[in-house]
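Quick sanity check, EamA domain-containing protein:
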Amino acid sequence: MGEARAVPVASASSYPGASDADADADDDARPRRRAVPPLAILACAVVAVSSAAVAFRALPDVPPLLLASWRLQATSIVLFPGFVRDAKRAAADDIERFRASAPELVASGACLGAHFGLWVWGLQTTSVPHSLLFVCSTPVLMSSCAALLGFPVRARDAIAAGVAAVGVILIAADANRRGDDSHASSSASPIRATWYGDVLSVGAAFAMAGHVLVGRQLRPRMPLFAYAFPATLVAAACLAIASAVSGESSSDGGGGGGAGWVRSPRAALVVCYLALGPGLVGHGGVNASLKHFDAMTIALALTLEPAIGSAIAYACGYAVRRNGRRPARRSAILGSARLGSTRLGSARLARRRRRRRRRR
């Protein structure tokens, strides 16, 4: 979502741990600790989440809601030790504040669950490039919703959102005529880009916008794992319930039930990667970045996901034309135009941050 290097970055001195390192500089017995720059965390997070589409495609026979639930179940397990550590370090006032934030945590988790459920469902019914392009439309949706709700929207934001929206519409219109096909392996049949899968991916983008906006309110006053674990656990529970209600778990392709991934070596390998890579490094990095960047900056950074994810998919053979040639040029051109439009928004954010620093 826009070039990551255009995203404004908090200075190293404002990042947790930097002041401690400076204070300990005179203590020879303790090595100097250097904080990881927030931009580096965000960049690693974007690359990690970009690999998720290919991993999900490795389990084509598992129903979408169940597969999304598996991914979040494993991520919850990975996040739990950090949650215990944060809970032990929290003071009584902090714990009371965390309890008061429970409704917002549930809302954030529900949005996260809806995002993954709709995205994996869309990913199984459309091509990888189309799915990633639409699921990363969050900046467009945020700008449009702000205008509809009466909030002031700058001309540059409106132009960026308009250009991106035109690209999205043209990509959707192109789906049934020249869609990109994928034929990853013998277990995965070719999937043509469809308007149905594209609509599901747009719904996933709406859900992610809600998750980011709620998370932006919670993260500054909550430790990383104290926020990420409950939200992820709620998301996994919502998807497990939705999968059971829809009958996915009991169907022939039910994948072994609500926790069937632990009984299949292949599924366990894929799900564990999703938990550690896109889950811990990816979404964990995004949650950590919410403490340093505003919601629109995060959304803009994540627009790089289609480009990176599509490149990974092409390299793995998951997103090529049916005749084996290069991807459909029209989708690539329109997708590049949509991604390029978000550069306008990221440039505006950079200028705004510079003006604030000058005033200080």
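Posting the structure with no commentary besides this: The chain has one domain: 59-359.
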